[in-house]
């Protein structure tokens, strides 16, 4: 098969962009529950923020009239899905799909943040 320009293209990071109605509250939740730290913000008042933890990056954009999608908008791999599941419950995040071992090799669950953004969480088993 002949190569194409896309075959030679190297990709860097790609990060989910979550629309949120209150950017500071979203930052607080993602910091307290998952340990994300703010590495960039833009605007006055702040309308865009980049959060990082380990290899993960999450972009928040202020969208006061945001209506959440009814599907998962991001997937997050974690080292301990059971502990993450408990932390989500303890912090009042809505569980959409309970923790289960999947036949495709993940222990996984889905939660919704306070804006209804659905995040699929998985641990490789």
Tell me about this structure.
The structure is a single chain. By secondary structure, the protein is α/β, with parallel strands linked by helices. The chain has 3 helices and 8 strands, in the order H-E-H-E-E-E-E-H-E-E-E. The protein has helices spanning 5-8, 23-34, 81-90; strands spanning 17-20, 37-42, 48-53, 56-62, 72-77, 94-101, 106-112, 118-124. The model has no long low-confidence stretch (mean pLDDT 94).
Topology:
Elements: H1 5-8, E1 17-20, H2 23-34, E2 37-42, E3 48-53, E4 56-62, E5 72-77, H3 81-90, E6 94-101, E7 106-112, E8 118-124
Parallel strand pairs: 1-4, 5-8
Antiparallel strand pairs: 2-3, 3-4, 6-7, 7-8
Radius of gyration: 16 Å
Largest sheet: 4 strands, mixed
Question: What's the shape?
Answer: globular
Question: Strand-and-helix sequence, N→C?
Answer: HEHEEEEHEEE
Biggest β-sheet: strands ordered side by side in the sheet: 1-4-3-2
Catalogue the unreliable spans: none
Structural class: alpha/beta
Number of strands: 8
Mean pLDDT: 94
How much β-strand is present in the residues? Answer: 35-45%
- Helix proportion range: 10-25%
Distance between the termini: 35 Å
Instruction: Please tally the helical runs, counting DSSP H or I stretches of 4 or more residues.
Output: 3
Short overview:
The chain is 21% helix and 41% strand.
Name the descriptors.
four-stranded mixed β-sheet, alpha/beta, 125 residues
């Amino acid at each position: 098969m002949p190569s194409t320009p896309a075959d030679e293209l190297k990709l860097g990071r790609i990060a989910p962009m979550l629309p949120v109605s209150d950017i500071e509250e979203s930052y607080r939740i993602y910091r307290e529950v998952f340990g994300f730290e703010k590495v960039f913000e833009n605007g006055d008042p702040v309308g865009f923020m980049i959060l990082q933890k380990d290899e993960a990056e999450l972009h928040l954009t202020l969208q006061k009239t945001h209506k959440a999608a009814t599907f998962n908008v991001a997937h997050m791999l974690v080292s301990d899905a059971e502990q993450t599941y408990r932390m989500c419950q303890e912090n009042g995040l809505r569980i959409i799909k309970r923790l289960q071992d999947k036949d495709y090799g993940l222990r996984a669950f889905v939660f919704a943040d306070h804006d209804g953004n659905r995040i699929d969480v998985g641990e490789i088993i």
